[in-house]
Amino acid sequence: MARRTKEEAAATREHLLDTAETVFLREGVARTSLQSIAAEAGLTRGAIYWHFKDKAEVFNAMMERVCLPCEAEHDAQEQTLLPDADLVDALRAFAWVPITRMLDDERTRRVFTIAIHRTEYSDEMRPALERHIAAMEDFRARIERMVTAGQARGVFDAGVEARAVSIGFMSLIDGLLTRATLMPVESRDVEGYRGGIEVFLRGVQRANA
């Protein structure tokens, strides 16, 4: 019985998060209340407060369902990066993780759309903003580590600050995701995303690398 109760609680939590995605996307985060999520899910207000203390916690849990797999894939890429690995190819693969997931998985696309276009970071959403900033900084720092390693090996231009490269590359990826969540994505768009990444990578490589 205890196992069944635990499984039922987990299922209810997932149902609430599924519902939150639907309501956030339709209404926007600022105009959505916990009560409206509970009502849409066909549950009581007490049911949602059993699982989440506030809207920011719902938002963070929703984000984690799509961001944690991306972070895990980035972890695996870093951990398996060999000393003689092609760091240009590594950065290319690193950049493509969130884009591929957004293109291939409807939930990821929906959540990215909410985070980029349907979220206003008010005072009540401060914890969600802090989580977002921390995730973006982690992403940037990972890029910087690879750029620094590439500069030490003569692959990337040592005359450009690695931090600046990481900020520029991260901004490019963020911009591609923003564009891709504004409109339907066609095959030529995907090729354009790949081309944009290639232009940036060529720009930061050492001339004779």
Give a description of the structure.
- The chain contains 9 helices and no strands.
- The protein has 209 residues and is mainly α.
- It has 2 domains: 52 residues, Arc Repressor Mutant, subunit A (Orthogonal Bundle); 150 residues, Tetracycline Repressor, domain 2, CATH 1.10.357.10.
- The longest helix is centred in the middle third of the chain and has 27 residues.
- It is elongated and about 65 Å long.
- The N and C termini lie far apart (64 Å).
* Mean pLDDT over the full residue set: 91
Tell me the radius of gyration: 20 Å
Order of helices and strands: HHHHHHHHH
Counted by DSSP, the helix tally is: 9
Strand coverage percent: under 5%
The second-level CATH architecture of the largest domain is Orthogonal Bundle
Structural class: mainly alpha
State the major sheet: none
Calculate the terminal CA-CA distance, rounded to whole Å: 64 Å
Shape: elongated
Helical residue percent? over 70%
- By CATH reckoning, the class of the largest domain would read Mainly Alpha
Using the coordinates shown, work out and report the CATH topology of the largest domain: Tetracycline Repressor, domain 2
CATH superfamily of the largest domain: Tetracycline Repressor, domain 2
